What does this fold into?
Amino acid sequence: MKGFFRILKESDKLGYKLSAICGVNWLVGQLFKWQLLVFEMIASAVLIKEISAILEISSNYLGFLMIISILSVSFSKLRFGVERFIYSFFGSFVLVSIFLIAVDFPFQENEFSLWILMALISVGIYQFMKWFQTKLFQRYLFKNVLNKEYLGIKKMTDPFPPEINFYVDAGESDANQRMVMINKRAVKEAYQEIVELSFLNVERFTGVSYYRESLSGFESPLKKEFSDVDTVSHLVFRVYPFGKELDFYFKLIRLDLSRRKAFTVKGVSVKVVNS
It folds into this structure.
């Protein structure tokens, strides 16, 4: 216990700051996600009552199917482990409760269009905030925590990554040396002790390409070859709020980096994917 308190006392305050920012970012995301789900449940209840009235059947039949569909999402999470299932089941239970309350609520006949419109507006708010929140959070990370230039994250009009970049280091054959080297250059110095690239997976995309060899005065026949179209790297960064001495962490961000995008500049024609 004394060792734990010592670690807390000696921990870098940047770890607490970054954890707080991540926590607020997560809470805001959950807030807008749940406002969407609440309006969806209300709109679904109103819609089921309207359909049941048109078909002249009890709303219990369609309501039962709705409940089964909500709960089935939780059971589909069992393959990811018990903890994931419990978390998902709790969320489904809350949604079912909201749906049942909405079904029993005496809505007016002229409120049908209003609640459908409210649900559509909530979808728009959620999608906009999801986009805006992601952009804002990534802007903070690339400005303060991660080396954007080294990782090759850029716009089409930006220049190529520097000579020493992620894709060069990712070619290192020794796994330990590769991860140590990338961590040293991808994470900014102030956050070296609290942020870590923990996982790096690579996908290679290969396809068919057609070409003609240049022959003066003659049209050469069309030839076919297989070539690597792109390489996409999946990077998972973790945060250790109390430093890497303590095995306590949470996921900071996952990045999917395309080599082709990194080495593509608008107005510049350079073949680098297969080099």
Remarks:
- Strands lie at 195-211, 223-239, 250-258.
- The chain is about 55% helix and 15% strand.
- The longest helix spans residues 13-55.
